[in-house]
Design goal:
single chain, alpha+beta, five-stranded antiparallel beta sheet, about 550 residues
Amino acid sequence: MNGKELVRINDNLKADRALWDQIWQDIADLMVFRKASIIGKREPGVKLTQDQYDSTATQAGQDLAAWINGNMTGRGMDWFSLKKGGELDEDKQFQEWLEESQKKQLAAFRESNFASEWNEVLLDLVFFNTGCLFAEESEIVKPGFNGFNFLSVPPGTYSVMLGRDRRAQGLFREFELQAQAAFERWPDKVSDEIKEAANKDPSKLFMFIHACFPGDWFKGNHRNQGKAFASYYVDAKKKIIMNQGGYTNFPYFVIPWLRESGETYGRGPGWTALPEVRTAHKAQELFLQDWALTIRPPLKVKDQGVIGSVRITPAGLTVVNKMEDIEPLFTGSKYSENRFKREDHRAVIREMFHGDKVKFIPPREQTGAMTAYEVARRYQMAQVLLGPTFGNIIDHGLDLLVEFGFNMMLRNGAFQDPPGDIEQVDVQYESPLAKAQRIGEVEAINSTLEAVGLMVEAKPDIFDNFDLDGTAIQIGENFGYPTKLINDKEEVKALRNARAEAQQQQDALEQAALAAKAGKDMAGALKDAPEGLVEGLAG
């Protein structure tokens, strides 16, 4: 492919996205004014809040994004673990290797800019209902793994192409680089215009395109170095390719809040709340006008009733012919009623951003200390109410992101050599929401065993229907018990055999002691018996 073909594809994708851009621009103008450059370009530093009268939606959306972040991928917790597919105790050594690898991968995430960029992605997901994260290895400065670099891609700058599984498989992204940065990145490829700007105006911005898609798309004639995905960087103005290469895993993670059938981008609370937010802004604008009229009402003045001019400044002196010649003019508006209606609009907006759901755990000072069961039940409620969105965040984002990071670190030697072939690795999430779901499974197990225990007296062998060893391991897994502290089948068998042998030896010793005691008692009895009786027995 050449640069002209790639720019043409990008232009076509932008045209298909035009209706979405308009809605996103409206959302940005009314809720996320700092991103109000979706259609057109705003000059840096220009005032963007001239149409902002109410911040309810902005605050509600930020609260929701922060709640999702804290309860799914909080920086202070190990929010995922890696599990070998299949039975846990089939290969304990491999599972221990996975746990050590998970610690290194999580540490690499924490050392990168993941936390800040992921928070931006969640804000885009809440407001614009589609979030996009770009991941790559940091600048290569040493052999091996150099760390992660993440970038949140704002709406209106990228166009998505979906695969058969309805996940993002191709993406064209527009971005700007300063002339100096572009020259340093591609010194042999940049145009003469960029070279000149790098010398005379190094901060001048130029537009570029990053195109990434499966290697067999668009006739499949790509220099993607044998990797699954082709990658092109293109000068959007000159339509020349600056760099081409490939990725083993798709580096973009596009997450929809909810996606309608046949659509590419997501819909959600930002879309739903937009009409109500418009009304809230207008209501607040009218409220402020009414407030000003109430505090400082206009005056009605009789013709030629005032001598000179009206002075409404503090201690101002206005001369009138008669006192009734000048009076305040009241509009008759109902200030308190307007205030209550305004609060109604705000409450609806908060509800649309699930404020009534994500803040259902009140502060401890209001309720006292809650039990673990109460906390788990409340998290389960959130899981039910926001389950589809959590599913999309995992399926379209976190699952793919963890896989991307794991494969990159494995290829670059960041992990120790695995103890065997890597066939299947499953991601298990350890966030409060995920743990709450697993605690529900433990509750089901405990309730079942408790109910069955009531039948033991009537049928002593009733527990033969259950694999209690497997049950104990499942409970440990659900509570996050370390695999290295769980004995495998051979270790359990050895322990039980040793215990059985020790019990047999103990029983033998007890039998010997009883026999010795019986012999001793018999000898004493014979000694004390009459002489003739002993001779008769021996007779």
